[in-house]
Design brief:
single chain; alpha/beta; Aspartate Aminotransferase, domain 1; Aspartate Aminotransferase, domain 2; seven-stranded mixed sheet; three-stranded antiparallel sheet; about 15% strand; binds 4'-deoxy-4'-aminopyridoxal-5'-phosphate; binds glutamic acid; transaminase activity; aminotransferase; Aminotransferase
């Protein structure tokens, strides 16, 4: 038996580099190596008690039947209220679909909207799974590169240049995984202006890091005049509420798209986990200030990590305004030999750091930027200090 028996679809699919690196770190740890994993993006906090209590109550109240495919009405109502409260977006319950993580929300959208050969604009760096999810639907990712110099944000001119008659959508995250960049209202308005004369282009706005934002303000592109009807707003509870394992994501979308996603989900997974849905009602009804302690901790760690990164020769970073990653440009090391190892690219550097610093990171290649590596700072300050000490040591040139 071998891969020849598998579908072309699966043979052509890349493994998720974030999950692969996390698995590798776990494997090495199990072998007794002292690995610090800065690979996987997940909060190191526990799910807040008030959410856990809501889940326990849901179990006791026997919320154990199949839930509606698109989510419980009370949850959809809580999402509608959340979108109005935080984003100025006026969705109705018919616009909402709850899924098994924002990852499934994204997959649904791709399958529901993309035809073979449709182009999808991806400002790079983009979140690792976008390109594979788009390709699985037959779409063609059109990658628009950025760099530290532009705070990893695309300009209206770049967007204009990327548009062709085949452009179907643009997908982006703000705050961005992996760069931490946050587009402000002015910048989003300028991008929306470019899209004005192409009303057939839809935008996927992935706002899963919305609350982990140190910039002081947040803007959903769907709230820019002219954008609501063609924006699919993706969000979830994994990051802000430290609920990665609960697997709840959701969208707000034009009703015909919501219906299409529900149709697909109804044939594939049915409604998302009933207990997690009930718990999510409690999470979304809470004031965002309830999770302020986590955001504050991430902010402090961001400042610490910037200080630590800037202390290492050859790493060039932007100031990430949100999420919990730094995405240094490491191209200074390309072509250099460290401890006898020739570093040709970001993949080599990530593997080198794993072996010589025992620190797991993710190559920027997976995010569409081959000059960078991603490090998650969703871990304690003590661990971060130790990790960067090791990295600094390993990157010393002889
Ligand atoms: N979008 C972005 C930008 C992410 O970083 C993640 C990471 N998990 C997801 C979507 C998927 O979220 P979920 O865990 O809810 O599937
Ligand atoms: N979103 C997280 C990350 O980028 C989790 C991993 C994943 O879902 O792929 O690390």
């Amino acid at each position: 038996m071998s891969t020849q028996h598998l579908s072309d679809r699966i043979n052509n699919l890349s493994v998720s580099q974030t999950l692969a690196m996390a698995a590798k770190a776990r494997e090495l740890t199990a072998l007794g190596k002292d690995i610090i994993s800065l690979s996987l993006g997940e909060p190191d906090f526990n799910t807040p008690d008030f959410i856990k209590e809501a889940a326990k109550k849901a179990i006791d109240e026997n919320w154990s039947n199949y839930p509606p495919v698109d989510g419980y009405l009370e949850l959809k109502q809580a999402i509608v209220t959340k979108f109005q409260r935080d984003n100025g977006l006026n969705y109705q319950p018919a616009n909402i679909v709850v899924s098994t993580g924002a990852k499934q929300s994204l997959y649904n959208i791709a399958q529901a909207m993309i035809n073979e050969g449709d182009e999808v604009i991806l400002p790079a760096p983009y979140w690792v799974s976008y390109s594979e999810i788009i390709k699985m639907a037959g779409g063609i990712p059109v990658v628009v590169p950025t760099s530290v110099a532009s705070d990893f944000k695309i300009t209206p001119y770049q967007l204009q240049q990327a548009i062709t008659p085949k452009t179907k959508m643009m997908w982006f995250s703000s705050p961005c995984n992996p760069s931490g960049s946050v587009y402000n209202r002015e910048e989003l308005t300028a991008l929306a202006d470019v899209l004005k004369n192409r009303e057939d282009i839809f935008v996927v706005s992935d706002e899963i890091y919305e609350h982990i934002n140190f910039s002081g303000s947040f803007c959903s592109i769907g709230s820019i005049p002219g954008m609501f009807e063609r924006t699919i707003t993706v969000n979830g509870v994994a990051k802000a509420f430290a609920m990665t394992g609960w697997r709840i994501g959701y969208i707000g979308a034009p009703e015909f798209i919501a219906k299409a996603c529900t149709k697909l989900q109804g044939q594939v997974t049915s409604g998302a986990n009933s207990i997690a849905q009930r718990a999510t009602i409690a999470a979304l009804e809470a004031a965002p200030s309830e999770i302020g302690y986590m955001v504050e901790a991430f902010h402090k760690r961001r400042d610490l990590v910037l200080h630590l990164v800037n202390d290492i020769k050859g790493l060039e970073v932007n100031v990430p305004e949100g999420a919990f990653y730094v995405f240094p440009d490491v191209s200074y090391y390309f072509g250099k030999t460290l401890n006898g190892v020739l570093i040709n690219n970001a993949d080599d550097l990530a593997m080198y750091l794993l072996e010589y610093a025992n620190v797991a990171t993710v190559t920027g290649d997976a995010f569409g930027n081959p000059n960078c590596i991603r490090l998650s700072y969703a871990t304690s300050e003590t661990i971060l200090i130790e990790a960067f000490k090791r990295i600094k040591e390993a990157l010393k040139e002889q």
